[in-house]
Amino acid sequence: MGILHSVADTSAGADASPAARAAAAGRRPDLGAGASPAADGPAVEITHLRKTYGSLVAVDDVSFSVAEGEIFGILGPNGAGKTTTVECAIGLRPPDSGTIRLLGLDPQADRDRVHEIVGVQLQESAFPAKLRVGEILEEYRSFYRRPADVTELVDALGLAGKRRDYYRSLSGGQRQRLSVVLALIGGPKIAVLDEMTTGLDPQARRDAWELIEKVRDRGVAIVLVTHFMEEAERLCDRVALIDSGHLVALDTPAGLTARARGGKRMRFVPSGPFDDRLLTGLTEVAAVQHDGRHVVVTGTGELVNAVILALHAAGITARDVQLDASTLEDAFVRLTGTRLHQNGDQP
Amino acid sequence: MTSLYRPARPSAPRGAFGQIVRNEARLAWRQPAGIIAGIGISLLLLVIFGEVPVFQQPSPRLGGLSAFEAYIPVLIAFAIGVLALTYLPGPLVSYREQGVLRRLSTTPVPASWVLAAQLVVQACLMVITVLMLISVSIGFFGASAPKDPGGLILAVVLAIAALFMIGLVIAAAARTTGAARGLTAAAFYPLMFFAGLYVPMQILPRVFQDISHFTPLGAAVQALEDSMWQGFPPATPLGVLAGYAAVFGFLAKRFFRWE
């Protein structure tokens, strides 16, 4: 509960800013007649959400809210309950308890209107193999009263040349991009994207990020489930860390990183043995540790320069130098005790 | 049928259903196995039977009909059966497997619209097949025109409804496309036996005929035969078809899963 209180405080504080930004910039969205949103409430409001599958508690007491014009990240290891949270939020699954409001609407009771204003990208969804991309787009476009500009979406995600192609001939990344286009095709007020950039090459990932930022700038609230720290750091206004069904932290990416407080850390292989005091005497260095052939030095400031100069003066060369600044990933490890990528070989 | 699959939600624009039907029709055209099996095979059999001179002789064992004439209703039932039992459940089960239905249910369009669109496309194929079978048998092989066209239309509609609902129950019961194929085969071959595809029912012992009258395709053949050669079909086969449509429609609605 202690965490939740602090979470509620943080979210209340941070909520105001993106909405205020959007309002100040005059890009408060023109809310469609189909929706009856709460006047100034958050776009997404989830309180004390709980969902179990049999004896498995998938999500327990998760609360957060997302403002219009905010990109909100949900991070967590596999099986943490991210997808379940999202599926409850969009009305695909009824929650066991807790309330969910999307622009003031209950996704279970007001399904029709919720589906009109929420665009969804699901992790596992396919389309008929023998439909052409253009035909799928046309069909989904026809589902909405105020569809978005399809050409713009298709161009932004580099699918313009693919309209005549059969769905089955698309690569994994192209299918992924199509599903992002389809999530945005209805001109949603809220977009929920589950693992949006999984399977995309770096360029396509950046294109997708740019598109999401553009969509956000129109005042759309974006909920982004992601595995990629870089994505969360680059895109998200705030991030929720979910672990074993619990919300363990909710803060800005910078705020979370600050919590990890690790400072800088460098790692290298020395060309020969040296006295640790050579480095521990430096003001930038906090600690020196040995890890097999490797030396791991933690500290602050111009750590790398100071260490390399000191070693050089003693006739030692540092090889295979690696530097990691404290990142969101560190914060994640610290707060959940797990890595996002189990196969990661970073120190 | 209308009460079951009537688009319940007013939220989606009207044109959406037409778009779904169009894409389902494109898929049927691009994966023409269904069209070939339904229209092609029944038409081919009709032409073969029509070309065999001995099949054109009226036979007292067939109640004065020629073997060719006796087979026309059977081939109509065959076409309806193939499409309803194979080419209706197949796409629906694979859509569920691949998450197509799940994705749809996050849009203003209910996933049931795809099911309704499938029914529309398959029903069109069936009607085209029936029209082709009847016009080819009359135009090329001298069969007599249906005695009671109104009764024939009613019999065709009820047969389509009954077989559709059985197909939907297969789609509801089968978790995978493989399971759907197995269930279809298990249902289709016995049903076609009782429809008289392999041996005309008229030459089999009475007990087979009695059973046949209470199977969906057997009742369909009986209703089709009557309306083609005698007059308005009796209540029993029509009632049997309506009963199958109602019971299996209820089961399909009760057990169909969208995920």
List the helices and strands and how they pair.
The complex is a heterodimer of chains A (347) and B (259).
Chain A: H1 2-24, E1 44-53, E2 56-66, E3 71-75, H2 82-89, E4 97-102, H3 111-117, E5 118-121, H4 133-141, H5 150-156, H6 172-184, E6 190-194, H7 202-217, E7 221-226, H8 229-235, E8 238-243, E9 246-251, H9 253-260, E10 264-270, H10 277-280, E11 285-291, E12 294-299, H11 303-313, E13 318-325, H12 328-336
Parallel strand pairs in A: 3-7, 3-8, 5-6, 6-7
Antiparallel strand pairs in A: 1-2, 1-4, 8-9, 10-12, 10-13, 11-12
Helix pairs in contact in A: 9-12
Chain B: H1 2-5, H2 15-30, H3 33-51, H4 67-87, H5 89-98, H6 100-104, H7 112-139, H8 149-173, H9 177-195, H10 206-212, H11 216-230, H12 235-255
Helix pairs in contact in B: 2-7, 3-4, 3-7, 4-7, 4-8, 4-9, 4-11, 5-8, 8-11, 8-12, 9-11, 11-12
Characterise this structure:
- The complex is a heterodimer of chains A (347) and B (259).
- Chain A has helices spanning 2-24, 82-89, 111-117, 133-141, 150-156, 172-184, 202-217, 229-235, 253-260, 277-280, 303-313, 328-336; strands at residues 44-53, 56-66, 71-75, 97-102, 118-121, 190-194, 221-226, 238-243, 246-251, 264-270, 285-291, 294-299, 318-325.
- Chain A has 347 residues and is of the alpha/beta class.
- The relative contact order of chain A is 0.13.
- In chain A, helix 9 (253-260) packs across helix 12.
- Helix content of chain A is 35%, strand content 25%.
- Chain A folds into 2 domains: 2-252, Rossmann fold, CATH 3.40.50.300; 263-325, 2-Layer Sandwich (Alpha-Beta Plaits).
- Chain B has one domain (2-6, 13-255).
- Chain B is elongated, with a radius of gyration of 19 Å.
- Chain B has 259 residues and is mainly alpha-helical.
- In chain B, 49% of the residues are buried.
- Chain B has 12 helices and no strands.
- In chain B, 73% of the residues lie in helices and 0% in strands.
- The A-B interface holds A 34, 90-92, 111-113, 115-116, 118, 120, 122, 124-128, 130-131, 135-136, 138-140, 142-145, 182, 186 and B 9-13, 15-16, 18-20, 22-23, 26-27, 30-31, 91, 95, 98-100, 102-103, 105-109.
